Amino acid sequence: MDVLYFAWVRERIGMPRERIETQAATVADLVDELRSREDRYAAAFADLSALRVALDQELGAFDAPLAGVREVAFFPPMTGG
Amino acid sequence: MRVKVQEAPFDVADEMRGFGAPGTGAIVTFTGVVRNSDSGNLTAMEIEHYPGMTEAALAQIATRAQERWQLGDVLVIHRHGRLIPGEQIMMVATASRHRKAAFEAADFLMDYLKSRAPFWKKEITADGAEWVAARDEDEAALDRWSPEL
Questions:
Q1: How many domains does the structure of chain B reveal?
Q2: Is A78 in contact with B53 (Cβ distance < 8 A)?
Q3: pLDDT of residue B149
Q4: Which keywords does the record carry (chain B) (predicted)?
């Protein structure tokens, strides 16, 4: 699936998007998988309460299942307006 | 209903030409401007967004406003990219038969697009760059409109 990062999550991880082959069942499982990869991921995902997630461009929850999802995005709380 | 996400500036008068519907008696427009810091040291504001999701989220918010109030027309414009203090960053416009619905719907649109549309602001000053943190008040403002999400 495509994993996208925005704002400071993108800066900490060092790229805007990547393609990931994963067997993770939920968003939280995917986060655990990413955290264990490298320090920069661990830093970006250190505090999930500071993050939001979108599944196929709809806001979702960290316990949401990933089955059938093509695009997951991680970002900080939005600051539009 | 129109939703626009763009880098280019917009002109409120141009956007308002033809806005409304037969029966419209009130039009409310709100324009957001890039505010300088108290010390006046803001060089620029960089606005990042999530292409695709942004347009969908704004359309969803505008649709909710139309479901909740009798609106003859709705417009939302939000810019992205690098803006300087004093530049117009976004606008909403609502048209209705009477002013109360137009005012309330514009207020609702503003509250929702502040914390539910995927934009992120970064302040650039001579000292460096810093992401703007979301404010608890902005999240709390949504409670006024419950039972909306």
A1: 1
A2: no
A3: 52
A4: Molybdenum cofactor biosynthesis
